Each structure stands twice: as C-alpha cells, then as structure tokens.
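Ticket #4471: structure export looks truncated?
Reporter: QA, pipeline team
Priority: medium

Steps to reproduce: submit the single chain below to the structure queue and open the exported record.
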Amino acid sequence: MLGALIGDIVGSPYEWRNHKSKNFPLFVRSSRMTDDSVLTAAVASALLMGGWREDLEQFKTDLIGELQALGRHYVSVGYGPRFERWLLSDDPAPYQSFGNGSAMRVSPVAWAAESIEECLALAKASAEVTHDHPDGIAGAQAVAGAVYLARTGADKAAIQAHVEGYYPLDFTLDEIRREYKTDTSCAGSVPQAMQAFLESEDFEDALRGAVSIGGDSDTIASMAGAVAGAFYGVPKEIRAEARRYIDGEVGNIYDRFALEF
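Actual output as written to the record:
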C-alpha cells in the first residue's frame, strides 16, 4: 500500500506538466496526495472492517461506505467527474467505467489476501462497486495480482506472465516515451505502469520510469509503485520523506493497515 501512496505523491506534480525523462526531484513543494491515495486508503479501511473474510457482498457494502466517507472528507484531490457524481450520490450504483480508478486504488487487497485466487476475487469486488465494465475489472485484477505475486516472492517473469493474461506488454518505455499521451483507461495506463516496474532496477527507478513517459503521471506512478514497493521494499529515506505528505485520516488508515497486514 505504501508504494502506491508514494507513487501518487511523486507523480502528482507531473500529471498536468508531464516530464519526459527520469531526471526530476522525487519530492517538490507541490507534491501532494491525490485521489489515488485517498481511494487506496478507503479500500484499506474497508478491509480493516473485516467483513470481506465472510462475504464479498459485505466487503462491497463496506467499501461503498468508506469510499464515500473518505472521498467526501478529502475534496479537490482530482476525482473524475463520473466518480464525483457517484461519490455524492445517495444511491451509488456502478457506472460501467473502464477508467484506471479501479486499478489505482486496488493494492491493499493484495496485502490482505491469503491466495492469488482470493486476491483476484477481492480485486474484482473492489472494482465492481464503480468500475463494473470488464476492462475496469481487468485493470484491478492485473495490478492486484502483480502486487500479490511481488509480495509473496515471485520473480519478474511470473509477474509479467500474470499481467500478460490481461494486457500485451509488447513495448518498452523508450519506445513509447516520445508519443505517449494521457490515457486514463485501464487498457491505456495499466500496461505502461506494469512495464515501468518490469524495467526497473529498484523502487525509485520504477517511479522514475513511470513518470518519465508522461500521461496520467500520478496514477501510473501509483500503480507502478504498488508493485515495486511489494517487490523491492521502500527505502527508508524515501519512506521518511513521503510520510510528511501522508496526512490526516489517510495516514491513520495506513498506520492501522500496516500493523494488521
């Protein structure tokens, strides 16, 4: 989970001002948590409630409540317009989204799950409350499965094979960097984030690679960071610096989640 939060913070200054190289400061004055961090924390909070252990429908109910509660608490953090309408609805219903919101918030399920099958089931359930389009579910499962495999000791070949069950990874970052533009669909951003991890040498390099292609930088870095954090661990100095930006209830939820999982 921490890798996802840090990736979001590191990518946040470059979402609207893309930086097409790996040479940039990890943290700047404008670095901040965005909707990626807030909604990741909401998934973690729903898992902490424990209902998922008995019933995925209960998990969905818990998740809807936590997404709305935390989302309404943190305003102006970059929610998409359709999600914002869902967030403010008195009767929230899924809206067939295939955007990357399902994938950027999913990483906590990979830390709670005790098997890859449970991980993928939780990922599907976590997506379905909003992103019930098959592509929205696929994005969540691709990222969650990659995080689960990374945290349980799988090598990059196994993680790549898992991701390629959902998306082709037939490019390098160097090949797409010049022309890649913002694409907030799962199909247009999850493979790029996973490739940033696969090409990386360490946690920091994964974030730098993710930001370097441009596009939806905070979300791509968040997804890459989720896998990289599970695979490499997070260096102490990066963890300490990032913690300054993880505040309020998101910080409280992260602390509780880290203790339990």
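Status: closed, not a bug. The export was complete when the record was re-opened. Leaving a note from the reviewer for reference: The chain has a mean pLDDT of 97.
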